[in-house]
Specification:
Length: 637
């Protein structure tokens, strides 16, 4: 009878272990299948991004060629080139259409607002043949032609931005892909405008404003690229994009913006700017190819992992059979070894630091990992209570909740701070399991834990670096945008009054040119300190990039808000205007500040930033080293 009961126990144990094993296998295989599905979606996303980038390039080039052709008196020799480009555009658009209709997953992957933008693109592309006929017959204005292509490109860029923001888990250059495409588009706009301007041989009142605005936006997008990029992408950009070519194009654009005569022919200008845009395209292609390679590598690794899991499952099955054999031997003395078998089964599960106690909590055994982490040897820990590890960083309620879980559920898991033998306090991930006998009485406790000090430090460092400027240690643009969005919502909800100050240093470029970038960097560090000294403790200061800073003034008294803001802005200007002493050099600069009070019936933070930016440029135009409220400008207008 005992022998049958013994065999029945072995059968039950084997069944349980088998069920657990295959349940775990199914769970892991299901996770890997989801990973493969996700990677397939990411590959599709990368192909979409590549297709959109190619279509953008074609639309930009066709826009530029068309803008010149419509004012040419004798454009026969240019017609062949334009026709050839139109065929390339049609091919790229066909590829784009095939991708967006390739899978039903497109509706899951692309957001609803992207589907609307795709519909807009399709609607506009139905008119392209009509637009082309008007171009060849010179019966369309430059503005109409330019706006038609630009509208399509704007929708393409919006889709691209959403795609690149969808997943940053496997690639940290997604944002950079959008930045380089936006930079390419603004350069393409400049190519079309100036190409048309040179060919027309007539000055328009708008060309100065247009070229200035394009140059500012191109500078802004280039700064965004440098802020968002990583070392690899920066290296690709510096090795691919010709600085002398950039400077030459900037010089021509600047002369045109000042209504100066340029000796650059229309064809030379188109060739130069197209060469720069193609260099941007090369940068984008390299980054995209690297992204594709990364995703493919992850996909292949997932396949290899699946094979490895199958091998591990096979070996685990053999291991279970071996374990059953040892169970058979140990269970000959069934009552004596029953609890020991349960302990061994738990010890088998993990190589983490481990403590085994009796029901009273006295330590019976610790493993090598415990000694390495806490500093106590087996002999020093034996018969002691785990309270020797207590850090006193947790309340009585914390431990009460822990014991309540152990008593009611037989298990507790969480993060806790403990103390090493040398007194050092450290965080650990701890799990405690209660071992019970056949009558449900607790006989032992098993605790497993790992030291997560390095993990927490790495996480904190990564978070800090992602949201702070490496030079001044001030919050960066990303942090500022997040903070501004949070405070904007709070202000809308609770009726708070805040202010956003856009600060641009006056004369900083001259400092860099005169003393070098090392002195310029030290100056920026001192400016950031003075800026912090000029505001309240609860206010927020950030470096946006280059010599641009921002301040968010929080919780202002509505009745006295304007006076208070003006006082702080004046204080900032006075602080920054004082002479800086750097390496025995006396340096004096100024600051132009644009101010926007919010929420002030504004719909979003983009308007807050744009209004403050506009006010800042007004301050510079008024003579620099002063502050201007956006309301002052809007009232005049």
């Amino acid at each position: 009878m005992k022998e049958k009961f013994f065999k029945l126990k072995i059968f039950v144990i084997f069944t349980v272990l088998t069920v657990v094993l295959f349940s775990l296998a199914f769970y892991i295989l299901n996770i890997k299948y989801k990973q493969l599905t996700k990677n397939s979606t990411l590959l599709y996303s990368a192909k979409m991004i590549t297709s959109i980038s190619s279509l953008l390039q074609s639309m930009q080039l066709e826009r530029g060629l068309s803008s010149g052709y419509i004012i040419m008196k004798d454009g026969i020799k240019y017609k062949t080139r334009l026709l050839k480009q139109q065929k390339i555009t049609d091919k790229d658009y066909k590829n784009f259409l095939s991708l967006i209709t390739y899978k039903k997953e497109i509706y899951k992957f692309i957001q609803i607002n992207n589907i609307k933008k795709i519909a807009n693109i399709k609607q506009q592309m139905k008119k392209i043949n009509l637009i082309r006929k008007k171009v060849f017959s010179h019966s369309i204005s430059f503005t109409h032609e330019f706006n038609y292509y630009t509208l399509i490109n704007t929708n393409l860029l919006d889709i691209l931005r959403n795609l690149t923001m969808t997943d940053n888990e496997h690639n940290d250059s997604n944002t950079v892909i959008y930045d380089i495409q936006a930079l390419k588009e603004i350069s393409g706009k400049g190519r079309a405008y100036i190409y048309n301007y040179i060919l027309s041989h007539s000055f328009t009142n708008n060309i100065t404003a247009i070229t200035n605005k394009l140059m500012q936006k191109e500078s802004m997008y280039r700064q965004d690229f440098f802020i968002d990029t990583n070392t690899k992408c920066m290296t690709v950009f510096s090795h691919t994009v010709n600085k002398k070519l950039q400077q030459k194009i900037n010089t021509i654009t600047l002369n045109i913006s000042k209504n100066k005569q340029t000796h650059c022919s229309a064809n030379l200008w188109f060739k130069l700017d197209t060469k720069l845009i193609n260099q941007y395209k090369t940068v984008s292609s390299i980054i995209l190819n690297a992204h594709l390679a990364t995703i493919k590598n992850i996909y292949n690794n997932a396949k290899i992992t699946l094979i490895a899991i199958i091998i591990i499952l096979f070996l685990s099955t053999i291991l279970i059979l071996i374990l059953l054999y040892f169970l058979y031997v140990l269970m000959k003395n069934e009552e004596k070894n029953k609890i020991e078998l349960k302990i061994l089964s738990y010890m088998f599960e993990s190589n983490e630091a481990m403590i085994i106690t009796n029901a009273k909590g006295d330590i019976l055994r610790v493993n090598h990992a415990f000694t390495k982490i806490n500093g106590y040897t087996q002999d020093e820990a034996f018969n002691k209570n785990p309270r020797i590890l207590k850090s006193n960083k947790h309340s009585k309620a914390f431990y009460k909740k822990m014991w309540n879980s152990l008593i009611t559920k037989g298990f507790w898991k969480g993060e806790i701070y403990n103390k090493r033998k040398n007194g050092e306090i450290f965080p650990e991930q701890l799990s405690i399991t209660a071992i019970k006998d056949d009558h449900g009485a607790t006989t032992n406790y098993i605790a497993n834990f790992i030291d997560i000090s390095e993990l927490k430090r790495a996480k904190d460092d990564a978070t800090y670096q992602a949201y702070h400027d490496f030079l001044t240690k001030l919050p960066n643009r990303k942090f500022m945008l997040k903070k501004l969005a949070d405070e904007f919502q709070k202000a809308k909800k609770f009726g708070f009054t805040h202010a956003f100050l856009f600060i641009d240093l006056d004369g900083f470029k001259k400092v860099n040119d005169t003393f070098g970038h090392e002195i310029g960097d030290k100056l920026l560090i001192q400016v950031s300190r003075r800026l912090k000294q000029s505001i309240r403790e609860d206010d927020f200061a950030a470096r946006l990039g280059g010599d641009e800073f921002a301040v968010i003034l929080l919780n202002l008294d509505q009745q006295n808000a304007r006076n208070h803001i003006q006082a702080i802005a004046t204080k900032i200007i006075k602080k920054i205007s004082k002479i800086f002493q750097i390496h025995n050099n006396s340096i004096q600069i100024g600051a132009s500040i644009g101010i926007e009070i919010f929420p002030n019936n504004l719909d979003n933070i983009d308007l807050v930033i744009n209004n403050a930016d506009t006010a800042m440029y007004k301050a510079k135009k008024n003579g620099k080293n002063q502050s201007v409220f956006y309301t002052q400008i809007s009232k005049k207008n």
